[in-house]
Amino acid sequence: MPLGPRASGGRSYATRSYPARGYATRSYPARGVRAGSGGLERAAGRAWRLLVVAAAGYAGYLLVSRLLLPVVAVFVALVVTAVLRPPVDLLARRMPRAVAVLLAVLGALVLLAGLGVLVAVVVRAQAGQLGGQVRGGMDRLEHWLEGPPLHARPGTLTDLRHRLADLVGSHRQAVLSTAFTGAGRLVEAAAGAALALFCAVFLAHSGERMWDWANGLLPARTASRRHRAGRAAWRTFAGYTRGLFLVAGTNAVLVGVVLAVLGVPLAVPLAGLEFVAALVPLVGSPIALAVASLVALATRGPVTALLVLALIVLIGQLEGHVLHPLVMGWAVRLHPVAVALAVAVGGTLGGIVGAAVAVPVLSVGWAVFRELRDGEEAG
């Protein structure tokens, strides 16, 4: 059999190769597959992986919505653990850790009870004066609306109050039903708080051992990656939680001092509302200060209300440009647009609870992804 071209009458013939005898073969594309389709195949592979991730996320969302109470309780327990961990570690240097956890929990409960009593005392002391202040403030507001530059029709605010009272009276049954539903929610909240406190005690006492035990149940070949991811997740979550509480506390103190200086009643309860609302990034603090401005408008008049509105802008700038970068910049590396979108999506899917947990969940997910990516690049 010839191994090369053969001359015959000036013409040459190509050699035919037989793969069975070890000769060089010519490769032909498989039937139905076009050359250069590697990019399309990679895109298709990534697309179905994204679909699997989206399906898993949707299934997780359905599961969380079914088990909302225990999930929220565990989240609150993690928040409490992140706040109590520094004092527990400090006390554990001088006493058994169980005693340190007990003292830290009791101290936190006493602090919360004291703040609740303070708010109740202030509300009770100012309740008698509040009615007269509200009526006087509404009269001043109505007089201001009737004057320049608005020149509203006389009695507009009085008519609005009467219509609001008639609306509440006509929907009395719905109001009572909402009140009973709220009472049921309070019972659920109390049960969730008890579960969260129970979990927080054990997490603060032996959280690392619980993590090591859970990590040991999974395959050992990926244990180091899970350990790194877990450390990054907890470091980010704890830093975010402590920083958020510090920022919320600072905002509450500033709001309380300014409202007290301006003579707005219920300054302490409004400062407490600011603290709770500031736990929802970007949107919580302006909402609480808007409530404070309405109280100032009803009790002290439009000038004081405008001053409180100016306070909204000032505290928002202080929080966004000074406190957040200074306190939480090392723990959370998220763009403000990502934070705003996370709050919007969380609020759409889960209401107030979803808006509150969206940013820490996104921060933890990003920290885990960054840790695993950096580990692979280093390896």
From TrEMBL:
Residues annotated as transmembrane: 70-88, 100-123, 244-269, 275-298, 305-327, 339-369
Major subcellular site: membrane
Membrane topology: Multi-pass membrane protein
InterPro entries reported in the protein's UniProt record: AI-2E-like
Key words, A-Z: Cell membrane, Membrane, Transmembrane, Transmembrane helix, Transport
GO cellular component, one term: plasma membrane
Subcellular location: Cell membrane
Coiled-coil positions: none
Pfam families per UniProt: AI-2E_transport
GO BP: any one term: transmembrane transport
Keyword hit for Transcription regulation: no
Top-rank taxon: Bacteria
Keyword Transcription tagged: no
Family to which the UniProt record says this protein belongs: Belongs to the autoinducer-2 exporter (AI-2E) (TC 2.A.86) family.
This protein's name: AI-2E family transporter
The species this protein was found in: Kitasatospora setae (strain ATCC 33774 / DSM 43861 / JCM 3304 / KCC A-0304 / NBRC 14216 / KM-6054)
